[in-house]
Each structure stands twice: as C-alpha cells, then as structure tokens.
Structures
1.
Amino acid sequence: MNTISRKNKSVIVIGGGVNGLCVAYYLRKNGFEITLIDRGDITNNCSFGNMGFLSPSHFTPLASPGVISEGLKHLLSKTSPFYIKPRLNYSFMRWMLKFYKNSSYKVVDRNAPALSELLLLSRRLMNEIAEDIGDSFMMEEIGCMMMCHSKKTFDGEARVAEASKKFNLNVEILERDELQAHEPNVELDIHGAILFKDDAHIHPGKFMLAMKNYLINAGVNYQLNTTVKDFEKSVDKVTQVITDQGTFSADEIVITPGSWMPELAKKLKTKILMEGGKGYSYTYDDVKNNIKYPAILVDDRCAITPWKQSLRIGGTMEFSGLNEKVSANRMKGIYHSIKKYYPGLDIDLPPADQIWVGLRPVTPDGLPYIGRPQKWENVAFGGGHAMLGMSAGAATGLILSNIVSEQKLPMNIDHFSINRFAKTTI
C-alpha cells in the first residue's frame, strides 16, 4: 500500500471532459494535488456541446436488439440518425463483432441493473455538486419526455416505462391531448410520450465552465492544449506522462480522454475496444415560443433541449472513424425530424458553418470502462459512456476518486471492468 499521505499525493488526470472534471473534483476534496491535462481548452470536447440530459431513465445499454440492423438499413442515407461507415480496420471490425454479439436481450437484461445503479447514483451526486459549487448551469428537475410519433413506437416505449418500475423510476404516460397540454406554446404532431420524472437537464457547457473555475479556485493545475505522446514506465507503475509541452510526474494517473482512450491505452500495452460515435448539435439563442420539456424523439433518434429562450437540437450516431468532420446533411436530417414533431416551432435550418460535432465514446456492450487495468497498479481508466457522459459523469468521478484513495466504492463495478473484452468470447 502506498504510504504517501493524501495531502502530498499527486494525481495526473488526462482528459478534461465531464469524467475528468468530476474525478478532479472528488480527488481535490480528498486532499490530492491535481494536474489536469487536456488536448483542447475544455470547450471543444464532447461533453461541452451535448444535450445536457441527466437520465436515470436510460438504463438500457446502447448495445441492444435491433441497433445494428437499423444502422445497416440506413447505410446509404446521408441524413439518417444512425450510420456505420464500412471500413477494413481490424479494431473496428472486432468492436463491431462484439457489439453485435452483445446486442441481445440476455446481455441487456444482465447489464441494465448495473447501468441503472450508476445513473441513479450520478443523478443524486449532481444535486450535491450543484449545492456545493452553485447552480450556474441552469439545472431543471422537471423530467424528460420520450416523444413517439407513431403508435407502434409509443406502445414500445410504454413497455420500457413498465420495465423501469423495477428500478423505482417515476413515470407518466401521456396521450396526444395530455402531451399538448404540457407544451401549450408549441403545436405538436406526436402520438404520445413517456415522461420520466426522475430525469433532469443542465446546460453542459455552463456546467463544464463552472467546474473548471471551481477547480482552479480549489488549486487544480490545468495543462490545456496539450497532447499526451507517451508514458515512462517502471515495472508495474507509470512514472511520467510525456506530452508535447513537457514531461509531468505524479503518484497516480487517471485516464479519461473520451474516444481517444484506446490510443493512450495502447501506449500502456492495454487493449481497449471503443469507437467514437459522432453526434451533432446546434443551439438557437432566442426562440420566441419555446418548448418547456427536454425530449428524445424516439422514432427519429434525435433530441431537443430548452434553456429558457435558448434551444438545442441534436442527435445522430455516426461511426465513421476518429474524425470530427461535419456533415451538414446529418444536421439537416435532425432539423427536419424536429419540425415533424414540433411543426409549430419557429426555427430555421442551422447554418452549416455553425454546427457542433463531438465523438461519443462507445464500448461493445454499451457499458463504460471504470477501474484499473491488469498491468499498472497506479493507473485508472474512466470512459465509454456513449450518450450518457453527463448522466454518469459524477458517479464515475466519485468511483475513480475512491479507487485512487483506496476508499470503499459506492457500488459494485465488476460490470465496468477494463479487462472484460480481453478474452475472445463474451
């Protein structure tokens, strides 16, 4: 056991997304000296421009029945909400095979309870964080709508609502007229919706900046616009982090770089299966008659989030490699889906040069990686939350902090093992 006191023990956190900020938050409260390294400036990572959902309702992992077949169905569509670009790449093909094999009812039933526990823990922690650092990030605890354009989709979501009862979630089923009463300012064309009342939403960019400023004031050292190139190793420990801005040393290394995790893991001879799923968003600053509830448009796999007079639309899951190229056609598809559900919403097609993109880190089973790898005793990884980064970031940060500080974990994390795909079978 490491005998260095927490007061003098140092930690390097690699990655300034929501996971990195949250683990730095909890570690600093435990007395650790923190250096946070990020390849950008915090504002240009996936956590910054997402939809801001805090969703214990999303207990079904992304790897679920029908997902792959839907992606193949939209293979040639330039505006589809789900797209898989075919490519001859060993890691991608291995990830695809694992994803396909995990997309079964058996695996989903096995994994959903662990994901639900993580999300419920994080939901509670976000309230504590808001109370601690001040709610300057527009948190609203009014729930989230699962909007269904067709009766078939509505009936399917009603079954999800029924299944959610085993996780003690509070839901309300709304028919067309009841739903319109919840959104009196905007004409809807929606068959019905499920309101998950335990969900909440925040402005993710404001949250990131609030956390950054809090951590700076708490003494966290930021090393921004810095790329990690390699690591110095000694037997079973990492001794130094080598970057394009110099070399940094610490007692512990926490790696939370989102979709770039496999690249850094490879430098530590650790295999991590993960693909970046590209998402798009655009934010309107002054919507005259705005909606009240954040929502996921289930039939079209996109989302919408209001913050007073601002409105963000977003979606897609595009697997096209580790790139941040913008496809205006994807946003066009999102826009037309929004207008289909909300014909009374007065918004224009987003300009192509102002579309935001981010790469969501997706694992082969839809569960994140949280924990230590087999080889390195002073390294911990956290990431792979797909669309649930904001929803699970606080819990992930607390768990990683407890791992580093050798405290009791708030939940069992066996399902999130870093090493769970090391074997050839699932």
2.
Amino acid sequence: MARVYADVNALLGPAWYDYESMKIEWNVPDRYEIIQRIGGGKYSDVFEGVDSSNEDAVVIKVLKPVAKRKIKREIKVLRNLSGGPNIVGLVDVVRDHVSRSHSLVMEYVNSSDWRDIYRSLTELEIKQYVFQILRALEFAHSRGIMHRDVKPGNIVFDREQRKLRLIDWGLAEFYHPDTEYPSHVGSRHYKSPELLVAYRTYDYSLDLWSVGCVLAALVFRKEAFFRGRDNEDQLIKIVKILGSDSFENYLYNYNICLVNASDDLLHPYDKQSWARFVASDNRTTATPEAIDLVDKLLRFDHRERLTAAEAMAHTYFNVVRLQTPSNPAECFSDSGFYST
C-alpha cells in the first residue's frame, strides 16, 4: 500500500475514477489548423497547431487506433487534473468524421530540447526544473493518479519563461491499494526497479524513481544516468551502482522471484559512492545536497523513496521555496512558476 494518498480514490468515489463508464462529447476539429509535426510515438502523432478562433498556439495530439478505454482514461485524468500546477492543460477533444481519428488539443509551451539543456542548466535552474516536476506529481498523487512515464521527453520546459509542464498522461492510471498493474509502462532509462522485475503491486513511488533519474542526469551532466540496452541491462546498470545487497534485500522483502536471470545480474556488486560520479564538468551542480536527494529517490525499496511532498521539503530546494509565491494560485499562472 502506498505510504501516502492510498485511499484517495475510495474517498472520491467512482465518479472520480471510473473512466470506462464516462461518455465523451467530441467536438469537430474545424477551428484547428495543423502547422507542423513536432513528435510522436507508439500511441500518437503530435503536431503544433493554431486555434483559428483566437490565434493561440496549441498542440494537437492525434491518437493512433487504441482501445477506447485508454482514450477515456487519458481524457478523464487530464480533466481531473485541470488547473493543477505544472500540468499540461487540455483545451479540447475533437473527432474527425472523415478519417475517424480522435485528437486531444493541448496547451502549447515553447519547449527547450533536453539535449540542449541537460549540460547547461545552472544549479538554480535545475532546482527550479525538478521542483516544478515534483509539484505536478504531488498534485496528481494527491488526486489518486500515477503518471507512470515521467521522463525528459514528457517534460516541456520554456527556459526563457521558466515555464514547465508535465505532459503525456496517456499511461497514467488511478491508484487503488492491492491492485496489480501492468509492468510494461514507462520508458526504459527511467523505469523503476519494480517495473524491471515485474512487481505489479506498485504505487505512486515509481514516479519518484523517475524523478531521481532525471535529477541524476542533470546534476551529473548525463543525457541518461542509467542507460541500458534493454530492460535486463537497465536493471544490471542499476544494481552495479546501488549494490547487490540492497537488490537482494528488496527481492526478499517483497517475495520477488527472478526468472531466467543472467549471470551478470546475479554477480555480486558493491554499492558505489555517488561521489565517484562527481567530475570537473559537474562539480558546481553535483553538490552534497543534490547527491543526498538523488540518494533518497533512487532506492530499490519503493517504500524507502521520498514522496513528492517530502522531496519538495528537502534542503536542496530551500532557495526555490523562498521564491515560491505565498498564494498557491499564483504558482499556476501562464507566465511561469516564478516571477522575475
């Protein structure tokens, strides 16, 4: 059972979380014009567009043929989280009757490319960046929702405006205690250990592992901190740093049995000191406070990881909290999280 917000959905009731019985009223897409493709993946193609009714820039996420329940789930999640801090806004849902395609129209953020920023963000910018991700997750978790695919590709960040949004809630799910969820979610370099060992009774804490991976990449100036070739190699790379003892304790405590484990995975590895990753190019960002936060997020045992709220209270973010407006509503403004 999750350490926090375990009973949120039970308290809010089926009207909050039962997306399968939700009826969606689809609008026509006539008012939206596609300008250019900006991305996409297994489940959708994503375009920059414009709303001709007001000339606002929008993002149009054209969904590929998927189960209706998955489409309903994403829309339900986005509507439930509407107005939350640093969570992308859903503008409209449209269906084209000719192509029979369904699209989600989202708020547009002029995003910096991860490859351009992971080596160049200053220490303060890293703190602001990660704090805003944590704010989004704390809000979502408090509403009973796991994101399940936190990664740089799902974080849009306007560096000039210091405006961040957590996007792509297509894999998000409502958390219910003692429920088994599929382990084939998330993206390899940010997958938590529970996903890699197919432990299916997971909770919000898998999102905090992903945040730890993002933070480690930023403070140590790596495009991806754990960079496995496949899921097993990803797990091996984690074990080589966190150590075999912690891994074995984790498997024992949760009665997890590995099937067809390779010799490399079963090989004994000593726990590595985070200090060994400090180098001349990251000394200003890989501070003792940053390393302590990384260490408290990247734990095999999901119950030992900090929650989003606990991470936000870490001393690493002291300067950021001082800049936070006293009125929470000010944090949600379209002009960004911080005023200049």
3.
Amino acid sequence: MEFSALPDLASRAFGGGVVYCNDEFFAAADHLVLPDPPGHAPKTFDHKGQVYDGWETRRRRTPGHDFAVIRLGAPGVIHGVDIDTAFFTGNYPPFASVEAVELPGYPGPDELADAEWVEILPRSELKGDGRNLYPVETRRRFTHVRLNILPDGGVARLRVHGEVVPDPDLLPKVFDVAAAEYGATVVDCSNMFYGNPARMLMPGLARNMGDGWETSRRRDDGNDWVLVRLAAPAVLKFADLDTSHFKGNAPGWATLTGFDDQGASFELLPRTALRPDTPHRFRLDDGPEVTQVRLDVFPDGGMARLRLLGRADRAYLRARLGR
C-alpha cells in the first residue's frame, strides 16, 4: 500500500522501543521495532523452543488477550500499520487491533495503562507468515501505540507508517532540517538502483555501503539527483555530504540548490569536488529561506548521509503541532 513508503515511526532506528508487554515467554517484544527485516533459522532451539525473530507469547489458557505498548521513536500522524507475522505459521494470532495515544514526556507503564487510548485499527483478521497492512484514518498526532493480539501468538515486526511531527520546543535553534526523524522526506530522485535515497536522511552513521543512496552507472551525459523536502522552511548554515563506505563508487562532484515555496531556485553549494569514503562539511553562504533542496551528484555514485543544518521556521513547526 502507498502508506508503507512513509517512515516507520516506531522503528528502533528513530529510537522507538517497547515500553511494556504483558507476556513475552517465547520471544522478546523488543524484536517488534527492529529496523531490519525478520529472519529465521529453522530447527534452532533453546530451552524455550524454536528461536523466533519476533515477539511470541505463551498459549493462553485464561480469558483475555496479549498486548505490547510501543513508544514511537518519531511521534507523528499515523497513516497505516503493518503487522508482519513472517515465519509464524501455526502460532500467529488470528486477530489484532491497534490503539494509540499522545502523552507528554516519558510516561511509564502505570500512566500508559490509565491513558485514554484511541482505537486506530479495530479487531482485524491476520494471515500467518506475511505482512498484514491496514490503513489508518485518524489524523491525529500520537506518541505511543498499543498492539493487541487476540488471543495470543507471535508477531515478527510492527511497522507504524506515517508523517513525523516533532515538538519544536525540544529542538535546538539550529538542527538538521533534512533529518527524517524531524519530518524531512524525499520528494523525487533520478535513480535509486542500488539504494533508496531516504536512507541518507536516517539517524546515525551509515553502517555500510548498503545503508545509503546509490545509483546505477550512467552511460550518458547527464547526472543523478535527489530532491528533499525539509522538515520546515529554513535558512541553511551547513551541509554534510558523507560518502563513507563509498570508495570506488563515490560521486566526483556535487551541488546543492534550494527552492522556496514559490518555486524560485537559489544556489547553496556550487559544483564542489568530493572524496571517496569521506564525511564532508561545507559552510553555506547566507541565503533566503528554502523549503526544498536538490542534491546533484556528478555523474553518479553513492552518498551515505545528507545533513542540512539550519534555522527552521518555528511558526511552521508549531502550526503542524497544532499550537
């Protein structure tokens, strides 16, 4: 579904985590938010049975159901959920539902238990060993979700796809307005044969060459590019172009072009040489406020991370938050 292309707000990559679960006898609920796809090694047993890369509860012999509460690493508006039961065949839950809540600060299990939860996915049927994608219509900002499995069983991953809506009161004056964790997104790109450009906007350092944007080899006179919508309109101060891990396939040069909300363009970084396997930082000349930035690489190649540090429009961020 289309919503699955949006960021996973619950991902451990954004700092998401399992706050509480009522049972994790066979496999820990922490697996639910891991960013990597679930794996499986058949006939791998420990003292509790087959080892699963997911959350698995014991067979329930009493009324009720099992549940796990997840803190979203990036609070925001949820557009859909993916309840992935990969490799759970005879032990997956037949049904599930999802609730959500917005709470300030860092509530503990007792505060979460007393909160007024909103049902964003009613009791819905699940299939085993596969993805179960359901759209969410409630367009509110949430900070936590609760996955209910009915009555018990195993779920490999829970993906909570949506739009990031950060709290501007928790952001410094200058921050990375190209960061996915603050709401920046990729609008378009010329090529993503080896790697999706959205990876450039993820937190932290790239783990390897596969954790970045990489294009196929160009055989024409053109060049590759990616267009990023910033988390908020901003006046940019610095740009980080990180080619770490890209050694024989880094771009030779790059430029940055900004666009305002009227579509006017401004040169932010002229054509500049890049080095392989190198984090580059460039000071940007004072310019106008921009809403989108286009990174052009010449002629092609890979980029591990793109960071654009600037002063964001606080009124825009507060309006998104509803303040």
4.
Amino acid sequence: MSIAITGATGQLGRLVIEKLKARVPAAQIVALVRNPAKAADLGVEAREADYTQPAALEAALAGVDTLLLISSSEVGQRATQHRNVIEAAKKAGVKRIAYTSLLHADSSPLSLAEEHRATEADVKASGIPYTLLRNGWYTENYTGSVHGAVAGGAFLGSAKDGLISSATRADFAEAAVAVLTGTGHEGQTYELAGDDSYTLTELAAEISRQTGKDIPYKDLPVADYAAVLSSFGIPEGFAHGLASWDADAATGALFDDSRQLSRLIGRPTTPLSTAVAAALK
C-alpha cells in the first residue's frame, strides 16, 4: 500500500507524515511537494507535484493507492488546484482519497467554504472512494497571537462571545492518519472539532492565568480589527478575511459539539490550556 500526502512540507502535512511513520513503513509514504529538496528531512520519498501542472501531478501519483489531499493554502485558487489533483488521481488509478475540508462546509457562512464545497463535489464526482475530513479551526490560529497579546496587553478579535470548538494541528493530523490507515471510512464525512468550546474572553483569561498578567479580550468592529491586522504587516485582503472569519465565529460558525474528532482519534482533543502553555514556551 502506498499513501501520498499533498502539501507534505506544510505545518499539517509534516505532522501527518510524522504520525504515519509510526503506523506504516516509511517506504509506503510519498510526500507530494513543489520543492522535493525541502522535504529531505521527512525521511520518506518526495515527488515533485505542483497543483498547477496536471501532467506532473499524474506522474507524481503513479503507484499511489491512497491520497490525502490537504487543501491548498492559496485561497481563491483552491478549487482549480484541487480539481487538478483529483483529475490526476483518477488518471493514475488512485484507489482512495481523503480531503481536508472545512467544518460544516455545506452550510458554513465562512468565505472559505465555497471552494471547499466545490472540491467536495469534485471528490464525490470522481468515482474514487472518498472520506471528507471537515476540519474545524486550528487552535494555533489563535494561540499564534499569544505573544503579541501579552506584549500589547490585550487579545484582539471580532468574535464577540462566539463559541469556538478548535483543536490543534496534531489532533487533526492524527485524525487523518486514522482514516488513511484504518477501514470503514469510505463514503464518510466527519465534522472534526475540539471537545471543548471557548470564547476569546475565556482564551484571554487562560493567557492571563498562565502569565500572571491581566490580558483582557478586546472585541473590535470587523473593519477596525482588519486595520490592526494590516498594521502588523498582514496583507490587506487576508487581514479582512481573518477579521470576517472572526465575525462569523460570533454567530457560531466555528462551533461543533459532536465530538467526532475525539472518537476518531481515540482520545480527548488537546485542551486549550495545553495549547496556550505550548505557545508561551
């Protein structure tokens, strides 16, 4: 059995390969990357695979039985890029595909959802047995701002009191590995989210508890929050996206209490306190 992972040098891809190597021989794992030199430290075969070059993708997928299609990071180009991978997988004879989609992709108000819906439709239309891994928010999307919040004296956002059911990348990577190496997942759609939900006020309180400093949560209008993010050097379009996704969280877009993720990985998801502690190290 050969298992290939797209985006293998990304933050999620690296974790998936690390955890896969604990379950299957490294010789059965293929890292699909734009620059194989950057995958030299992964300890598995690396093949050049560019989302924009269909012929190269087909060659890279030769002999692959199972494919994990980790969604592209290029928002706005994802649907086309993913379609190229799916078409190449069909031509290469891939027997199973798992795709990292978005939590509640079919109904999510997040602007990110449209491309995920398009890819889910393409996966289903491909005729290849599939599993949809609808990943919720990464806890790191928020804990990545912990040091900035401590330095600035407040945690900023636009999520109001919206509940966020995030999980760490390691949790989501473990779920992907469970599907790639397990049975009974064909045709399944998993809504993956953390066991426990929190508001950004509660996140700020946890940061305060662990640092011994008063770090309140400051809720901002979307436009103001986007302007702050832009002032930190984040491209304007992406800054507006981040702020709008926070606003969607205020209406429940990042909440899920089904606990499908913890059932899939066979353990509780990583607590917020643990993730905050890791970010503060």
